[in-house]
Write a structure and sequence with these properties.
It contains 4 helices and 5 strands. The protein is of the alpha/beta class. It has a single domain, classed as 3-Layer(aba) Sandwich (Rossmann fold). It has a 5-stranded parallel β-sheet, with helices on both faces. 26% of the residues are buried. The mean pLDDT is 94. Bound molecules: adenosine-5'-triphosphate and manganese (II) ion.
Length: 144
Amino acid sequence: MFERILYPTDFSDVAKKGLDFIKQLRDAGAKEVIVLHVNDIRGIDLAVLPASKDYMEIERALEKIITEEMGAIEDELKGAGFKVKVRVEKGIPFREILRVEEEENVSAIVVGSHGKSNIEEMLLGSVSEKVIRKARNPVLVIKR
Ligand code: ATP
Ligand code: MN
C-alpha cells in the first residue's frame, strides 16, 4: 500500500513532520519517495516585474533555497534507506500535486494538514484540502 509515496512539501514545519512518519512506513513496505515542491506561480506578480533586476534576484534566491531544502530532504530519506526522486514543478500547488500523483503512479500521499500559513482557525490548509478531496490514492495527513 505504501510502496511509492508522494511527499509534497512547502518546507513548513508541519510538512517536515511528515518525514518522521515516512521513515516509519518502511516497516509497512515503503521503498521509494517522490519528493515534490511546487513553485507557486501566483506568488510573484510576473506581469509587473518581468524585466526587473530585483525580480531576478528574488528568483535566484528562491531557487537556491529550494535546491538546499530538497537536497537535505533527499539526503535524509536516502540515509533512511529509501530510493528518492526529487521533483520541482512550477504551477498551482494542488494541481501539480495531483498531476504528479497520476504521472508517478504513486500508492499513497503524505501531506501536512497545514503549511506555511498555518492559520489557527483553519481545519486544513487550502492545498491539503484539495488534495484530500481529489486524490485517487490514500492520503496520510500529518497533523500540526
Ligand atoms: P494556505 O496555503 O491555504 O494559506 P497552509 O499554508 O497552512 O494554508 P497548505 O498550503 O494547504 O496549508 O499546506 C498543507 C500541506 O500541503 C503542506 O504541509 C504540504 O505537504 C503541502 N503543500 C502546500 N504547499 C505546497 C507546495 N507549494 N508544494 C508542495 N507541497 C505543498
Ligand atoms: Mn500554503
